[in-house]
Amino acid sequence: MDRSRVPLLLSPYQNRPWMVNDGAAAAAAGGSKGLKGIVAGGITGGIEICITYPTEYVKTQLQLDEKGANKRYNGIVDCVKKTVNERGFFGLYRGLSVLIYGSIPKSAARFGAFEYLRSKSVNSQGQLSNSGKLLCGLGAGVCEAIVAVTPMETIKVKFINDQRSANPRFKGFAHGVGEIIKAEGISGIYKGLSATILKQGSNQAIRFFVMESLKDLYKGDDPNKSVPKLLVGAFGAVAGAASVFGNTPLDVVKTRMQGLEASKYKNTADCALQILRNEGPAAFYKGTVPRLGRVCLDVGITFMIYDSFMDVFNKIWKD
């Protein structure tokens, strides 16, 4: 019997069209796309964090700043000024090494997961449905949260928080990580995992949904139409802004759960409740302005760099 003549509706793979005629070849292509995403994403992550880190530093300091006698900063400019006066210009880069070590696997996990999931979810025209965009972005965010973001963010917040004390304990990345693990065990670098999964999952679901939707809108009826890189950057900035307004409250809770005083919170829900009781609803949007600036720049640059590397890889690295 000529299997090529069997109608699609009679195929056992009718819900997995990539398995009908292409079989293992299509599955391998999906894996290849995921591998391209991992490599391109890793390179992108290392470049991006070196550009945007000072805004991340200021955002974290403002989120850690509590009301009352312990309040240290009166805003973004005051935070920058006091940091430079006390630590010099490179004080704004305190903790950068932590993010460099973490940004490469974080970005690699995010884009690798998205490309793999995307390759399994596109229709015959190579496009994602709206629900597909959200689910692929959500999967990418959960993957990066577990693989890299939670330990990286916990260590980063503890390093920045340590600098706020009169006598900082951590003398460098290796020493700081060793001290954290010695005091709290390996779980000490996995504080706030559930909050981070919620944050990263919602972050990437929003960003990839907006990004893919704007690209589809620009391409119109031609799915193969190339999107100019500057426009990709602009789309990325819009996607970043959408994610900031959508999940800053989760980011604040995550930051508190990963700080040096996280022990006073029983869990993520208790942390959110204490912030609400003691500081009011506005506290959930602390650091929004510096985060908005960092994220728009971050996401715009990230998608521009990533798209550029993927264009090169697609030419020299065949599926």
Describe this structure in words.
GO terms for molecular function: citrate secondary active transmembrane transporter activity. This is Citrate transport protein. The protein has a single domain (28-316), classed as Alpha/alpha barrel (Mitochondrial carrier fold). Mean pLDDT is 83; it is low at 3-24. The chain is 70% helix and 0% strand. It has 9 helices and no strands. Helix 6 packs antiparallel against helix 7 (229-258). With 319 residues, it is mainly alpha-helical.
Oligomer kind: single chain
Classify the secondary structure makeup into a structural class. Answer: mainly alpha
**What is the succession of H and E elements?**
HHHHHHHHH
Estimate the global geometry from the Cα principal axes: globular
Q: Assign the CATH class.
A: Mainly Alpha
CATH superfamily placement: Mitochondrial carrier domain
Count of spatially separate domains: 1
Low-confidence segments: 3-24
Strand residues, percent: under 5%
Gap between N and C termini, in Å?
30 Å
Helix count, DSSP H or I runs of 4 or more residues:
9
Q: How many strand elements?
A: 0
Mean pLDDT: 83
Tell me roughly what share of residues is in helical segments.
55-70%
CATH topology: Mitochondrial carrier fold
The CATH architecture can be given as Alpha/alpha barrel
Alpha-carbon Rg, integer: 22 Å
Q: How does the major sheet shape up?
A: none
